[in-house]
Design a protein that fits this description.
single chain, 149 residues, alpha+beta, Nuclear Transport Factor 2, Chain: A, 39% strand
């Protein structure tokens, strides 16, 4: 299920499994069992486009305001093999309160559409492309941003 989630997740960072919270068997048929699982996921430091296997990706520490994911996964188990039938995930950054319990001076994540963030990214990319004659980069996405005071 984790590999399925990471393969179909096309923004941000890969996720690692923190724990399986629930497994409920919904039905048993001649074709196997249908089950619903709840997974608690942790953000890694590997962008979703990275070829690095998720097993080799370090989990982002809390002081970097990691994003946590909760997924409900519907699976079919047939002859010892699992097939993902559906996934519904939600994710959100760890709360400022939790971060400041551990690190009172750590910067928090900024909204990705914050004008300071988008302006800084645009300027950095413009400067890089202007000074580089061998390659030209175009922004795919802003994955994380912090504004430091």
């Amino acid at each position: 299920a984790l590999h399925y989630i990471n393969a179909h997740h096309h923004h941000g960072y890969k996720h690692a499994l923190n724990r399986v919270e629930n497994v409920n068997i919904l039905s048993e048929t001649a074709n196997g069992e249908i089950m619903l699982t709840e997974l608690d996921l942790l953000e890694t430091k590997c962008p979703w486009v990275s070829p690095t296997p998720v097993e080799s990706c370090p989990v982002r520490p809390i002081i970097e305001q990691a994003v946590e994911g909760d997924c409900k996964v519907k699976l079919q188990k047939q002859n010892g093999s699992f097939t993902v039938l559906g996934v519904r995930c939600k994710s959100e950054p760890d709360s400022a309160e939790n971060i400041h319990k551990v690190c009172t001076t750590c910067p928090l994540l900024a909204l990705l559409n914050n004008t300071q963030v988008t302006h800084a990214v645009d300027q950095a990319l413009l400067h890089f492309n202007r000074d580089n004659s061998t390659v030209f980069y175009r922004l795919h996405e802003i994955g994380r941003a912090q504004i430091q005071g």
